[in-house]
Amino acid sequence: MKIGIMGGTFDPIHIGHLLLGEFAYEDFGLDEIWFLPNGNPPHKETADTGASLDHRIKMIKRAIQGVSYFRLNLHEANASEHSYTYQTMREFNQMFPEHEFYFILGADSLFSIEQWKYFREIFPTCTILAAMRDDKDALEMQDQILYLTEKYGARIRLLQAPLLEISSTVIRERASRNLGVRYMVPDSVAEYIKMNHLYKNERS
Question: How far apart are CA 64 and CA 107, in angstroms?
């Protein structure tokens, strides 16, 4: 099967994440999209921030409920040590040799990928789907793809994604001030945030 990988903290998961997964699924004929919450991300000083890992997982479950090709994968969430993309993708290839993996990332990540730990080891494990939000980015994205392809043998394809200026940071900030987050997250997630008083202790 052709599997799309959507990684991140998902704190909380929002409409932008879901649309990116949907576009990748349809545009590249994928069989499933795996949402991969990171339980111990290397760029955080603590094991978890904001909502607890349990809350983040439950929100993902709510967000993808009823979508047969959206799946929750807890491989990184269950890891006791820091999770790195190269390591996760290498392990997926070993665990599921019958699958073909597509790693979904944003434009910013494509330009900063050389700063990732052991980034060269990512390229043999998957095809990268790089989200391009508008036509203005096209030339720069193509140049970066050509550069990474020629220098490292990367397999990268452009993913045309909708332009949505939604961020988990803004959602947390609004929730901390008891403001609505409807339309930025699925209704079931907005309900969960309100019901569990999430992000109330965060500074606005």
Answer: 24
Strands (DSSP E) along 41-173, which ranges?
70-72, 100-106, 127-132, 156-160
H helices present in 67-201, as ranges? 85-95, 107-112, 138-152, 168-176, 187-195
pTM for this structure? 0.92
Write the pLDDT tens digit of every residue in 152-180: 999 999 998 877 778 999 999 999 999 99
- Are the C-beta atoms of 172 and 202 separated by less than 8 Å? yes
Cα–Cα distance for residue pair 110/131, rounded to 1 Å: 9
C-alpha span between 115 and 40 (Å, rounded)? 19
Which residue did the predictor score with more confidence, 70 or 138?
Answer: 70
Which DSSP letter does residue 133 get? -
